[in-house]
UniProtKB/TrEMBL annotation:
Coiled-coil region list: 411-438
Gene3D superfamilies from the UniProt entry: High mobility group box domain
Listed GO CC annotations: nucleus
Biased composition (Polar residues): 28-45
Region Disordered: start-end pairs: 1-45, 99-125, 216-238, 304-385
Protein name: HMG box domain-containing protein
Extent of Basic and acidic residues compositional bias: 104-121, 217-234, 304-323, 350-360, 373-384
Alphabetical UniProt keywords: Coiled coil, DNA-binding, Nucleus
Native species: Psophocarpus tetragonolobus
Length: 440
């Protein structure tokens, strides 16, 4: 029994020791489940890496926001530039609705040289005679060249008597007189139109400026381009037989839940397989529509032609009125010029009447004129062959360079001459008065 008791007690001790060893091995061994649990150091490093990653992400978000803001700003700048370019493009397309009849009339005469006229100059007597004699010379010497024929006629013209030349000269003078009248009339009309154009320049400029400002305001308000407006009165082109058929079939095909893109394909295939009898009603309808369209277009064209003719007539009347207005302006200008001319002539006549009496004393020259006479002589001796303008400039320069004393000498001479003139004029006036009393 003692042995058995000892054995029974010893056995569990050995078992507990083995379990303890196994627990220790399990803690140390990484293959066990408890070995998968991370240590504190590993947890700290992991948290640190996580924080770094979060900071990087935050930084990347900030950079992304900044780039998005920059892109938005660039887009807005581009949009503004685009709008400015559109405005500028619209401003370039400014087309005034004004009429410039005077300028238009001038544009038609651009190709002509100044002073030239459509009317031909009259041929001189020699040319008129040569035209009559040319055929006779050619008959006598058909092989003669142009130069030889001209020389022969030139020699013959010298022998022609004054009586034979007379009819050609009379014809030339008559044609010349008519030509000069036409030229004078054309010149007068041109001058009148020029005056009218000058008067209209300011008014035209103001109207053009108003239109431009209005156009600029409209372009700033409107962002989109205005489409070209179609004439609502113009008849619409009729549909063909095929399109009339498709219009009938479209509603039925769409009701059958056919796709909008499939409808044209189906109608095209059906039209292709249709017989002539099936197509006939559509073709007849299309023919009637074409006939109706032709009649409407003819009436429309006729109306347009009438409008164009009416506009042309109005333009012609306007041009006539302008010419009349221009001639009135020219007459007004000529009248003003005549008044000015007559006034000048009257003043000149009065002056001549005053100075017509040879006994009337003449006004003495000024101090500068007295000096210039002397200075001119010396300068001509010093510089022979000098022109008048240079001489005058040199004289005036010398006069400016004179001292006060030297200038006073010339002033004294001029004042003495003036005193003498006044005394002579007083005596002359007294003698005139006494003569008038005697005559009365």
């Amino acid at each position: 029994m003692g042995d058995t008791d000892v054995g029974e007690v010893a056995a569990p001790k050995r078992g507990r020791g083995r379990k303890a060893l196994k627990e220790k091995a399990n803690i140390i061994s990484p293959s066990s489940d408890e070995g998968n649990v991370p240590s504190k150091k590993q947890q700290q490093s992991f948290e640190k890496e996580l924080l770094e990653m979060q900071e990087m992400l935050q930084q990347m978000r900030l950079e992304k926001e900044k780039t998005e803001e920059l892109l938005k700003a660039k887009d807005e700048a581009l949009k503004q530039k685009d709008q400015e370019l559109k405005k500028l493009h619209k401003l370039k397309e400014f087309k005034p609705t004004m009429n410039f009849p005077v300028l238009k009339d001038n544009d038609q005469k651009k190709d002509k040289k100044k002073g030239c006229s459509e009317t031909k100059r009259p041929s001189p007597p020699y040319i008129l005679w040569m035209k009559d004699q040319w055929s006779e010379i050619k008959k006598s010497s058909p092989e003669a060249e142009f130069k030889e024929t001209s020389n022969m006629l030139g020699v013959k013209w010298k022998t022609v008597s004054a009586e034979e030349k007379k009819p050609y000269e009379e014809k030339y003078h008559a044609e010349k007189e008519a030509y000069l009248q036409i030229i004078a009339k054309e010149k007068r009309e041109t001058e009148a139109m020029r005056l009218l154009e000058e008067e209209q320049k300011q008014r035209t400029a103001m109207e053009l400026l108003e239109q431009y400002m209005q156009f600029k305001q409209e372009t700033e308000k409107e962002g989109k381009k205005n489409k070209k407006e179609k004439d609502p009165l113009k008849p619409k082109h009729p549909m063909s037989a095929y399109f009339l058929f498709t219009n009938d079939r479209r509603a039925a095909l769409l009701a059958e839940n056919k796709n909008f893109l499939e409808v044209p394909k189906i109608t095209a295939e059906e039209w292709k397989n249709m017989t002539e009898e099936q197509k006939r009603p559509y073709e007849e309808m299309a023919k009637k529509n074409r006939e109706k369209y032709a009649l409407e277009m003819e009436a429309y064209k006729q109306k347009k032609d009438e409008e164009a003719a009416h506009l042309m007539k109005e333009e012609e009347e306007h041009t006539k009125l302008q010419k009349q207005e221009a001639l009135q302006l020219l007459k007004k200008k000529e009248k003003t010029e005549n008044i000015i001319k007559k006034t000048k002539q009257k003043k000149k006549q009065n002056k001549e009447d005053k100075n017509s009496d040879p006994n009337r004393p003449k006004r003495p020259p000024s101090s500068f004129l007295l000096f210039s006479k002397e200075a001119r002589k010396t300068l001509q001796e010093e510089r022979p062959g000098v022109n008048t303008s240079t001489l005058n400039a040199l004289v005036s320069l010398k006069w400016k360079e004179l001292s006060e004393e030297d200038r006073q000498l010339w002033n004294d001479q001029a004042s003495k001459a003036m005193d003498v003139f006044k005394k002579e004029l007083e005596e002359y006036n007294k003698s005139l008065a006494s003569q008038e009393q005697k005559s009365e």
